[in-house]
Amino acid sequence: MEYRTDGSVRSSFRLTLFCLPVLPAYRDIGRMRRLLDSLPWPSLLLFAAVLAILPLQPEPHLVQKARWLIEARPFALIDIFDVVMHLSGIILVVLKLAFRNRRTAQ
Description:
Distance between the termini: 19 Å
Number of domains: 2
Strand content: under 5%
Radius of gyration: 18 Å
Shape: elongated
């Protein structure tokens, strides 16, 4: 698959079927990179840590959901949303690291 500077994509038909949902997001990667670059590391790490450990009582939600996975308890849709919300800070840290490492490699 070849990405061009004007935003168009040249690929085979088979690859096009799998990449159609991703193409609009590819154009916004530069915007996302600028947003992540504008976030200072201390604030982002604090945000990730606080979201990962909250609530403290009776136990953090990530620990609770991990226990549920180990015990094979069923998850409701709200539980999946809850895990994603509590992992969002960690996801942002990983994305910022990935973009930084990608930029230094180029």
